[in-house]
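Summary for the steering committee. One of the milestones for this cycle was to obtain a three-dimensional model of the protein with flavin mononucleotide bound, which we needed before selecting residues for the alanine scan. The sequence and ligand used are listed below.
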Amino acid sequence: MQERKAITSVPINELAARRWSPRAFDATQSVTKAQLTALIEAARWAPSCFGAEPWRFLMWNRADDATGWQQAFDCLSENNRKWCNKVPLLFMACAGATFEHNGQPNRWAQYDTGMAALSLSLEAVAQGLVAHQMGGFDIAKSRTTFAIPDDFMPMAMIAVGYQAGPETIADEETRQKELKARGRKPVAQRFFGGHWGSAAA
Ligand SMILES: Cc1cc2nc3c(=O)[nH]c(=O)nc-3n(C[C@H](O)[C@H](O)[C@H](O)COP(=O)(O)O)c2cc1C
């Protein structure tokens, strides 16, 4: 199994360094109930504006809900379906549009939901699993299929499971993506010290 650790100028925590978004999954290994609970707890304890917990997560475990899993899989884009066919567990993270406590618009809901999704993704690494978030899915279809209310926005689907070797990916183009070097923009292009555009020290 390939390790694709982040290349950093100083050492960082292991979970952040080891997290990445692979496409090769082991279809023979299911996620256990305890692992699933740990993923949920990690997302559940994410911070949120006003403590509103504006996220909702739909989940489909192929091992005990093959029909639901297939419906979720069918919502994915063609490119994502090329590699998600071996994924044991799929999630969909949705963000609420309004605060429950006062009905006002919650402009932080998507930010909060992203944090919960990252927390779940890091917990996956801690559990010996991998997580791959996906924006490529049919929102309208997912709304209809899973009765998602209008005031919740489906943000991302997340594939979770055990990583497999890149050679298990049948589609050549997808396999090449799996082997591509990981990278990030230079720090100075994304992190500013004091004023917009000035390089951080
Ligand atoms: C909101 C979001 C949407 C994404 N959508 C897709 C997607 O539809 N398909 C895909 O293969 N990867 C998708 N990704 C994964 C990104 O391509 C990946 O995180 C990015 O290239 C950085 O790579 P890394 O996660 O391995 O560090 C998405 C990631 C995020 C956070």
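Key point for the committee: Residues 109-126 form the longest helix (18 residues).
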